[in-house]
TrEMBL record:
The keyword Transferase does not apply. Its cofactor is Fe cation. This is Lipoxygenase. GO terms for biological process: fatty acid biosynthetic process; lipid oxidation; oxylipin biosynthetic process. It comes from Heracleum sosnowskyi.
Length: 905
């Protein structure tokens, strides 16, 4: 009890020299009020300790109705702050030495200085009321504490007219930064005052000045208490950049730039890449790093190569747990790719898999890794098993072959993955047959498709094509227009051979899909430029059909990674995040709503520019588009529309649903058993209801939305600067009412959480077995007139394995998608928040959040029930994978499920 009193500040108050028997102002004190003429007098009533400090639940809200004492009765009293700091578990010798030195100097000069700022202004000076500056009392004493979380204390002296604390400033005179999780002040009559910080406090040698943290009480700009107005503006000014200067890793500056850092022009012409964003090639803006120009091109930013970190504002960097998970995954990937890389190094050519059994051995037998005396280090890694300096390096079995080793060969599984796989957002209802290209015929040739009625008529269960169209029975995955302009350039690359594909699906009476035709297109008017492959009738056509499906999967893998995943969930949301930090105060209620959905996104996007989407990076190495990957991505941005990014709008736009107010979600799915859409609508509605409750609480009328200058500045900057190349588009949603705001915020939260999860965390479960989803193809489908047709007929398995990625390409890709599919142990999932009861100071909002969290739990149970329903054949059946990509919760690792709050990987 004595320790608890000390931590919470009670013993300090009892022993304070400012507290006497005649003047008492303590936590939860009660006052009697009497009116005498025009003066109101307050008399403190002393409460027993038992009643005074009794509280059963945390208090989230801070009330403004703090009792005010008449000046003649003002007394000084002491309140206590508990500052929660998170330590890094790993420290090198230099860090330990610096920490020790800071501990010693703290005894002399008191290195961590804090000051409370009231919500009120002193009427005599016109400036905010402030406490006396104070220091952390136990910084040196706890310098050797090894726990991850350490609580420090500090005492503030204020008087009874101070009011409610609304901000706290921190000055760090140490040489080393430290991470503040939160600060709680005990001792005010209003109850505990919480300051959720979750921020690094830099040494004032790196960032001079005071760090400002606001309490958890949200305020619209027009409602900002007088004592906090100047600090609110100062904090925003400190975060904004001006487009100039080199950034230090310790900076907290948010600014915009174009994608001019993907190429490496100093290495030669082969590593030059066009700038994305601007007049020539439209693209969203990214976070500016301020790196100097490259030597050979002043318009290209110089590269920061791994392992050196790229700049993102300091608080956007991975925390230690996430950084360790990511580093371990990369190390694991490096080891996974080590032996294939060595084999390729000494092989006369890039070796193919010798047979499917060699692919299977990656999961069953593994690879032996012999590294010698350093094996003691490797013993710590669970994926390495063995003895005598030989370690068995095995890949986890991908889910696609975990229940049925041959599922990937079946047509129904190929079709099922278009609605329940890693990319379920490309399929559309076929409205016109044959499909027609939208490309310029003068540049790209005839717009007509090679698909004819005779190709599919026998596959429609007795229907005519027109009847199937009118009955909403035909669907298409169409990659013709996005790939065709790049095909000649891609096929000119070494080890690349691809088509622009179209795949037609028919909806069967059982509710499943079956592929009924694949169109393979090349540029030009020659006889081979457009070819249709239909389901097999014999052994030869079976292998041709498997090759055609592999080309479709290759097309799909490229567009999935570069458009649906990277562009639409990573790149297009980044400007909204940058603008939020620049224009929305941390005390703004919309900032508090968006905060968990912005976590880690800028860091993972920077890492992608460094290692994945850069010249000669993983995407160029492993995916069909090669060096033209980001140009293909930018071509897709031309058709990107924010107003169609919400799930209902996207489903309607693709013809996969129609509006229907009688249905639970206001629309009817044309494929009732469409797992991504069915589960997604549950999540979408839960997010939408939560956001609407939140928004209506703070914006009861349209004028409140229109007059919120921070909110309007955030949205305007997101469009006019962050998406500058599309700022004149008429489709941008307006922001004039609470319903407008609800729609915009729901879309952003959906993209950052559920949409990203659906597109990302299935990459290894489905793509980890490369024949199921080859990311690139190296040979075209042979024709009877081709010289290679004889080789194909004589050994079709060998031809197939020579067409998909080589061993080195495959293992490199597998290692990467394994990393991308992995959850870290500190992941925060939808419906979760750090400090869930105090992240907001508004008790009604806290209650609404818990209702949202409960709803997410109910949705998870409903999804689990659907996965056990034998009538839903696209998610339940012999060898059929349950659809879990939109199941909200998950443990760490590559689980194939879980919806993090934000785009974290």
């Amino acid at each position: 009890m004595a320790l608890a009193n000390e931590i919470m500040g009670f013993s300090v108050l009892k022993n304070s020299s400012f507290v006497t028997s005649s003047n008492i102002l303590l936590l939860n004190s009660h006052f009697s009020c009497q009116r005498s003429g025009n003066r109101v007098c307050f008399s403190p009533v002393v409460c027993s300790d038992k009643n005074r400090f009794q509280r059963t639940t945390p208090l989230a809200a801070i009330t403004e109705s703090l009792v005010k004492i008449a000046p003649e009765l003002a007394v000084k009293f002491t309140v206590r702050a508990v500052i929660t700091v998170r330590n890094n578990s790993k420290q090198d010798f230099k860090d330990s030495l610096v920490k020790r030195w800071d501990s010693l100097t703290n005894l002399i000069r008191r290195n961590v200085v804090l000051q409370l700022v009231s919500t009120q202004v002193d009427p005599r000076t016109g400036t905010p009321k402030k406490s006396r500056e104070t220091v952390l009392k136990d910084w040196s004493e706890k310098s050797n504490v090894k726990e991850e979380i350490v609580n420090y204390t500090a005492d503030f002296v204020v008087d009874s007219s101070f009011g409610v604390p609304g901000a706290i400033t921190v000055v760090n005179k140490n040489h080393k930064e430290f991470f503040v999780v939160s600060i709680t002040i005990e001792g005010f009559a209003c109850g505990p005052v919480h300051f959720p910080c979750n921020s690094w406090v830099q040494s004032n040698k790196d960032l001079p000045g005071k760090r400002i943290f606001f309490s958890n009480q949200p305020y619209l700009p027009s409602e900002t208490p007088a004592g906090l107005r100047a600090l609110r503006q100062k904090e925003l000014r400190d975060l904004r950049g001006d487009g100039k200067g080199v950034r230090k890793l310790s900076d907290r500056i948010y600014d915009y730039d174009v994608y001019n850092d993907l190429g490496i022009p100093d290495r030669g012409i082969d590593f030059v890449r066009p700038t994305l964003g601007g007049e020539k090639i439209s693209y969203p803006r990214r976070c500016r790093t301020g790196c100097l120009p490259s030597i050979s091109d002043e318009h290209a930013e110089s590269r920061v190569e791994k392992p050196l970190p790229m700049y993102v504002p300091r608080d956007e960097r991975f925390e230690e747990c996430k950084a360790n998970t990511f580093s371990f995954s990369r190390f694991k990937g490096m080891l996974h790719n080590l032996l294939p890389a060595i084999t390729a190094k000494f092989s006369p050519k890039n070796p193919n898999f010798k047979g499917f059994e060699q692919i299977d051995s990656l999961y069953s037998d593994g690879l032996f890794l012999k590294l010698g005396p350093q094996d003691k280090i490797l013993e710590k890694f669970p994926m390495l098993k063995g003895s005598s300096h030989a370690y068995l390096l095995k890949y986890d079995i991908p889910k696609i072959i975990s229940q049925d080793k041959f599922a990937w060969l079946r047509d129904d599984e190929f079709a099922r993955q278009s609605i329940a796989g890693v990319n379920p957002v490309a399929i559309e209802r076929l409205r016109v047959f044959p499909p027609v290209s939208k490309l310029d015929p003068e540049i790209h040739g005839p717009q007509e498709s090679a698909l004819k009625e005779e190709h599919i008529a026998g596959q429609l269960n007795g229907m005519t094509v027109q009847e199937a169209l009118e009955g909403n029975k035909l669907f298409i995955v169409d990659y013709h227009d996005i790939y065709l302009p790049f095909i000649d350039k891609i096929n000119a690359l070494d080890g690349r051979a691809t088509y622009a594909t179209r795949t037609i699906f028919f909806s069967t009476p059982s509710g499943t899909l079956k592929p009924i035709a694949i169109e393979l297109s090349l540029p030009g008017p020659c006889s081979r430029s457009k070819r249709v492959v239909t389901p097999p009738v014999d052994a030869t056509t079976n292998w041709l059909w498997q090759l055609a499906k592999a080309h479709v999967c290759s097309n799909d893998a490229g567009v999935h990674q570069l458009v649906y995943h990277w562009l639409r969930t990573h790149a297009c949301t980044e400007p909204f995040i940058i603008a939020a930090h620049r224009q929305l105060s941390a005390m703004h209620p919309i900032y508090k709503l968006l905060d968990p959905h912005m976590r880690y996104t800028l860091e993972i996007n920077a890492l992608a520019r460094q290692n994945l989407i850069n010249a000669d990076g993983v995407v160029e190495s492993c995916f069909t588009p090669g060096r033209y990957a980001m140009e293909l991505s930018s071509s897709a941005y031309k058709n990107w529309r924010f107003d169609l990014e919400g799930l209902p709008a996207d489903l309607i736009q693709r013809g996969m649903a129609v509006p229907d107010p009688t249905q639970p979600h206001g629309l009817k799915l044309l494929l009732a058993d469409y797992p991504y859409a069915a589960d997604g609508l549950l999540i979408w509605d839960a997010i939408n209801d939560w956001v609407r409750t939140y928004v209506n609480h703070y914006y009861p009328d349209p004028d409140t939305v229109c007059n919120d200058r921070e909110l309007q500045a955030w949205y305007a900057e997101s469009i006019n600067v962050g998406h500058a190349d599309k700022r004149t588009e008429s489709w941008w949603p307006r922001l004039a009412t609470s319903e407008d705001l609800t729609s915009i915020l729901t879309t952003l939260i959906w993209l950052a959480s559920a949409q990203h999860a659906a597109l990302n965390f299935g990459q290894y479960p489905y793509g980890g077995y490369v024949p199921n989803r080859p990311p690139l193809m190296r040979r075209l489908v042979p024709d009877e007139n081709d010289p290679e047709y004889v080789k194909f007929v004589s050994d079709p398995e060998k031809y197939f394995l020579a067409s998909i990625p080589s061993m080195l390409q495959a293992t490199k890709y597998m290692a990467v998608v394994d990393t991308l599919s992995t959850h870290s142990a500190d992941e925060e999932y939808i419906g979760e928040r750090s400090n869930p009861s105090i992240w907001s100071g508004d008790a009604e909002i806290i209650e609404a959040f818990y209702k949202f969290s409960s709803k997410i739990g109910q949705i998870e149970k409903e999804i689990e029930e659907r996965n056990r329903d034998p009538k839903l054949k696209n998610r339940c059946g012999a060898g059929v994978l349950p659809y879990e990509l939109l199941t909200p919760s998950s443990g760490p690792g590559a689980t194939g499920r879980g919806i993090p709050n934000s785009t974290t990987i």
